[in-house]
Design brief:
Layout: E1 10-16, E2 22-24, E3 28-29, H1 32-50, E4 55-64, E5 73-83, E6 87-100, E7 114-131
Antiparallel strand pairs: 1-5, 2-3, 4-7, 5-6, 6-7
Length: 136
């Protein structure tokens, strides 16, 4: 079905990355953080397309392209790329849209200084499959 209205649906979430999520030197956040955000945005996709939270079945590809730091603002987008009878393939992208000035290599003097990244930095991409209950 190429005319399925669910194809191309995009849902976007934004989240501030709290310092409690930093696990490594330089306030780095582990890659699982992005995957958890992908699960959250996939849930909303399933609700919007099928009226059910659905279940995440698998990832066919995950790429960690750039670091995520505590203090970042991350934007996560999910786009439906394939619709099966009960499965939905979703393309994911996590982008860093704001970053602390120190982590961005800037020295403004204020510890809380931050900048908007233009363009955003693509941190993580993935392709995943969710399943929803059969239609009654």
């Amino acid at each position: 079905m190429t005319d399925d209205p669910r194809l191309g649906l995009t849902v976007t979430h934004r989240r501030y990355v709290a310092y409690s999520h930093a696990h490594y030197a330089g306030d780095l956040v582990d890659g699982a953080y992005s995957l958890a955000l992908f699960g959250d945005v996939a849930t909303e996709v399933c609700i919007r397309t099928d009226g059910d939270e659905g279940l995440f079945a698998s990832y066919s590809d995950v790429q960690f392209r750039a670091p995520v730091h505590a203090g970042d603002v991350v934007e996560v987008a999910a786009t439906v790329t394939r619709v099966g009878s009960r499965s939905r393939e979703i393309s994911f992208e996590a982008r860093v849209v704001c970053r602390g000035a120190a982590a961005n290599g800037e020295s403004s003097g204020a510890a809380s200084a931050a900048v908007v990244l233009d363009p955003p930095v693509v941190a993580t991409t993935a392709v995943g499959t969710v399943v929803v209950p059969p239609r009654s």
